[in-house]
Amino acid sequence: MTNRNVIRVIRGQPATDGAGVQLVRVIGQPALMDLDPFLLLDAFRSEDPDDYIAGFPAHPHRGFETVTYLLAGRMRHRDNAGNEGVIEPGGIQWMTAGKGIIHSEMPEQQDGLLEGFQLWINLPGKQKMTAPAYQEHDAARIPTESRDGATVRVICGETSLGIHGPINQPLTDPLYLDVSLDPGVEFAETVTAGHNAFVYAISGQVSLDDDSGAQLSLGRDQLAVLGPGDSVRLQAGDEAARFLLIAGKPLLEPIARAGPFVMNTDSELRQAFHDYQSGNF
Ligand code: MN
């Protein structure tokens, strides 16, 4: 086993999106525009309804997948094909936008904590115009693995103990784990060699090795890009810690992106705008 050391640390930047939602943009900002196949990672966490109540009214997507994972609060989504549902705490919505959808994502609450993440995962050029699809799972359908002092929610991929998440996406073969550690606990996991991987700290502090062999401490809103290897090792600090461990197969294709569309070429982007504006979504 070769440990994946930290090669870069990125701090999420405050951003506003939708109709005025305050969030932290971690991937998809100047310091880290993408980490192939990941195009965007937004984290939102607020008890102030002014930060989230405006939500994300109707908007289009084409060419990739959006993965919404809620820790607290509820979000209702509706799309132009008549699909509708509510994401509850601990639940996941994995949406393949494919050739195009128009949807809204609105808080299903007037007050209280809303906390969660949206990750955008690219699709290979040959699959960008696939039919839209959803994979939705509530908290009860996401397996929880208990280790010594560690709790792992397996959203996608397979752990070293053989637990599978409910999501299926062979194109990018993602690993998506939500890991909670008791104070001081060490955690090690395999991560497929050749896949791009990162750790995003939700709460507490976790330490990882950097490329010089030094220990690096990662805290709230920080993302560590992991270097080559086939495993990762972390340790919680003096307090409990929680983080996302996410990895995926890089597509190694050109990326042309503009707002809600991510294609391979500028001409495909123009076609996306044209199709959307002419009502062909
Ligand atoms: Mn959306």
Chain-wise SSE layout:
Elements: E1 6-11, E2 13-17, E3 21-27, E4 38-46, H1 49-52, E5 56-61, E6 64-72, E7 75-79, E8 84-87, E9 92-96, E10 101-107, E11 114-122, E12 133-137, E13 144-147, E14 150-156, E15 175-181, E16 186-190, E17 196-203, E18 206-209, E19 215-218, E20 222-226, E21 231-236, E22 241-248, E23 256-258, E24 261-263, H2 266-277
Antiparallel strand pairs: 1-20, 2-3, 3-4, 4-11, 5-10, 6-9, 6-11, 7-8, 7-10, 9-12, 13-14, 14-15, 15-22, 16-21, 17-20, 17-22, 18-19, 18-21, 23-24
Would you give an account of this structure?
The chain is mainly beta. It has a single domain (6-277), classed as Jelly Rolls (Sandwich), CATH 2.60.120. The chain has helices at residues 49-52, 266-277, and strands spanning 6-11, 13-17, 21-27, 38-46, 56-61, 64-72, 75-79, 84-87, 92-96, 101-107, 114-122, 133-137, 144-147, 150-156, 175-181, 186-190, 196-203, 206-209, 215-218, 222-226, 231-236, 241-248, 256-258, 261-263. The strands form five sheets. Strands 1-20-17-22-15-14-13 form a seven-stranded antiparallel beta sheet, with no helix packed on it. Strand 23 and strand 24 form a beta hairpin. The longest helix has 12 residues, at 266-277. It is globular, with a radius of gyration of 18 Å. The relative contact order is 0.20. The mean pLDDT is 97. The chain binds manganese (II) ion. Residues 56, 59, 61, 66, 103, 105 line the site of manganese (II) ion. The site of manganese (II) ion has 6 residues, from strand 5 and strand 10.
